[in-house]
């Protein structure tokens, strides 16, 4: 197996910096759009054969060093009883958002094997299809990010309903995050049992909180997920955006690899999280839409910031955009591999 990715996660030396991309499967790829013509996003997620096929599309096309199972962080919201739909243009919509303590108590108990077992099946199928070419990453949403969709009923700019609940009903907030944390841990353990080689927690929107609020309102719940996972000895990537002011807090909550977005220099971000963890990131995904010399310059800056230290996984700082030219992504993979090549 190409184990650059797993070695870098463990801060071991590698022959070249491993590279993969957040949202490496998706609408920017013609192969994905072709499948989407016949199937909805949720259908793809719930059909292991299709999910595995989409998982492998970027492996075949880009030559990246890791695969990520095709799924979505919002899938657990359906069995919780919130009513999940994706509508073109509007993104996710939840028919029954959580707005009060009573709503929290009405959430259903999720039977992970019965209700979300299809993600485990997708992982088994994808592992078979990969035949050991590259490791496979499982994932779930982080507690703040998943709670925000559940409370807002969809995407949001200012997190008004979420913050209203957490400030006015802190007990209900902690009860909700406690439940989400237990569910998420069980969900990720199921993915590891199905064969995932590493897991990533996407707490994408956690940077909407002040660091102080993060520490009291989210970190204990993030820790309840991350600590038991790390004890299994697998790489656990803890990812968020707009986290420059709370990187130490994110690291203290757990994870063996910390995701950085481009709003912080990778070198400074690494300094903030400390030497005991690996880092993943942190190219601005919009750089992939620009001219090649600028893209190469931006990618080289990321590599120079990492300066060949063991424990860097090259990635974008947030997901690849639908407008991205596939060739730019493929050229970038080749560039990172050549630029970072070193004797072992
Ligand atoms: O290749 C991969 O990265 C794996 C698949 C993946 C998807 N969603 C499939 C998807 C992953 C890792 C996610 C994570 C996810 N989902 C996040 C966290 C990552 C991040 O970007 O911060 C979030 C916030 C979501 C929730 C979500 N899913 C939203 C808000 C939307 C709609 C907005 C949009 O981009 O259209 C989705 C839809 C979605 N999930 C798509 C894909 C490929 C695109 C929609 C489609 O095919 O119709």
Task: Explain what you see.
With 344 residues, the protein is of the alpha/beta class. 49% of the residues lie in helices and 11% in strands. The chain has 14 helices and nine strands. It has helices at 4-9, 30-36, 41-46, 48-62, 101-106, 112-130, 143-152, 160-168, 170-193, 211-231, 247-253, 266-273, 292-306, 326-340, and strands at 67-68, 84-87, 91-94, 136-141, 198-202, 236-239, 257-259, 278-283, 312-316. The strands form two sheets. The protein has a seven-stranded parallel sheet. A hairpin with a 3-residue loop joins strand 2 and strand 3. It is globular and about 60 Å long. The two termini are 16 Å apart. The model has no long low-confidence stretch (mean pLDDT 97). The structure holds coproporphyrinogen III.
Task: Chart the SSEs and their pairings.
Layout: H1 4-9, H2 30-36, H3 41-46, H4 48-62, E1 67-68, E2 84-87, E3 91-94, H5 101-106, H6 112-130, E4 136-141, H7 143-152, H8 160-168, H9 170-193, E5 198-202, H10 211-231, E6 236-239, H11 247-253, E7 257-259, H12 266-273, E8 278-283, H13 292-306, E9 312-316, H14 326-340
Parallel strand pairs: 1-4, 4-5, 5-6, 6-7, 7-8, 8-9
Antiparallel strand pairs: 2-3
Helix pairs in contact: 4-6, 6-9, 7-8, 7-9, 8-9, 9-10, 10-11, 13-14
Bound molecules: coproporphyrinogen III.
The site of coproporphyrinogen III has 22 residues, from strand 3.
